[in-house]
Specification:
Distance between the termini: 27 Å
Number of helices: 10
Structural class: alpha+beta
Strand content: 15-25%
Strand order of the largest sheet: 2-9-6-7-4
Shape: elongated
Amino acid sequence: MKNANELKIKHLGIKWFGDIPKCFTIRKIKFLGRLIAGGTPKTENLEYWGGDIPWIPSGMVQNCLIANNEDGKYITRKGLEESATKEIPENSPLIALTGATCANVGLLKFKATANQSVIALAVDKHNDYKYLYYSFLANREQFLIYKAGGAQGGITLDNVKNIYLAIPDISIQKRIADYLDIKTEQIKTFIENKKKLIELLEEQRKSIIYNAITKGLDKDVKTKPSGVEWLGNIPENWKVKKMKFLGDAIIGLTYNPEDVVGEGAGTLVLRSSNLKNNVITKDDNVYVKKEIPENLLTREGDILICSRNGSIDLVGKNAIITKDDENLTFGAFTTIFRTADYKYIHKYFNSHLFKSQAGLFSSSTINQLTTGILNELLVPMPPEAEREKIIEYIDKSTEKINQAIQTIKQEIKLIEEYKKSLIYSAVTGKIKALLTDE
C-alpha cells in the first residue's frame, strides 16, 4: 500500500519528486516564510541613491552565496521608504524573476534590499534557511516551467509562492544542509583548481602564438628594430602595420525593441553572448525584422569581436564566421573585422600582443574597443608564404593544449552535473543516511 505522501504527490501531479520518505511533507514556498518583493527607487532622484543600504539587482543572483555588496549599489533610507523595495533580512534565499538570470537562486548573507526582478524568502523559525536555499537550487527546473515571454521573459511572485518543496523536520533540514555545505565546498575547490589549470594552459597557448607572430619560426633570422618600443626587434623582412591597412572594422547593427521578432521571422543577430570559446554558438538568440545593409551581413572569414562590455576580460573575445554563420547580422556591441588575412589576424586577436594593447580601450565606466582604436592597433606582418607556415605551426603546436582544455572543461561540466544530482537527492530524502542519527 502506498504511503500518504506518495498519494499526495500523485494527486498534485508532482512527478519530479518521485517517492519521498514518510518524514517529509510537501509544502508550498509561501508557507515556509514571508515572501518579499523588490523594487527600484526612481533613478533620477539623487536623494534615493548613494546611501548605506545595499540594493541587489537580479544580475547578482548567480546560484551561490551573496556574501557582500562590494561592487553593488546602495540606496538611502528615503529611497527605501518612498519606493516599492523592502528590507530583506540576512540569510534569506533569493530567486531572480526575469532576464538572463531568470530562476537563478542566491543566499543573501547580509541585510539588504533588491530590485523588482528579485523575490526573497524570509524563512520562518520552523525551517532552516540553508536547507531551503539548497531546495531552491534543486528545483530551478520547476521554477522555469512557469517562465513566459521568451528569452527576456520571466516568472512571477504568484508562480514562486505556489511552488512545492519537499520539507522534513528542521533537525533533518539542518543535517542535510550541513552535509551539502561540506560536499559543495569540496566540489567548489575541485572546480577552482581545474579552472586554474585551464588558465595556465591558455597562458601557454597565448605565449606560443605571441612568439610565433612577433619573432617568426627561424631562431637565427636577422632582426631589425620594429620602431615600436614595447615590441622590440622583428625579423628584418617583416613590417609593422596598422589594422586599418589590413582590413575593414565594421560596427554592428543598432535596432529597437520593436524590431525583435520570433525565431524564423527575422534575421539572427550575433551578440557577445553568441561568442564562446572562440566559436559561434546559437543558444541565446535574438532575431530582428528590419532592412539590414549589405556590409552588416556576415561573410565566411569575417572575425566577430566583442567590442563593448562591462568586463575588460570579455572585450576582444572573438570567433571566425564559418559558412554556416553567413548572412546573419551582428549587434552594436560587437564588431566585424573583414580581411583576406583572417586566419593570421585571428591568431593575433588570441595572443598577448592584442591583449597588451587592451589599455587603449579600458576606462573607469565602460570597456569599449571602438573601430577607431581597433584600426590603430599594430600587427607585425611577415611575408605571405611565411604567414602560412606560422598559421600551420600554431595550429599544430596548440592542438594538444586545446584538447587538454576541452577535457578539463568536460570534467568541470560532469562535476557540476554531479553537484546538481547530489543536492536534489539530499533535499528529496534519497540519501537515507541523512535521515537518522545513526
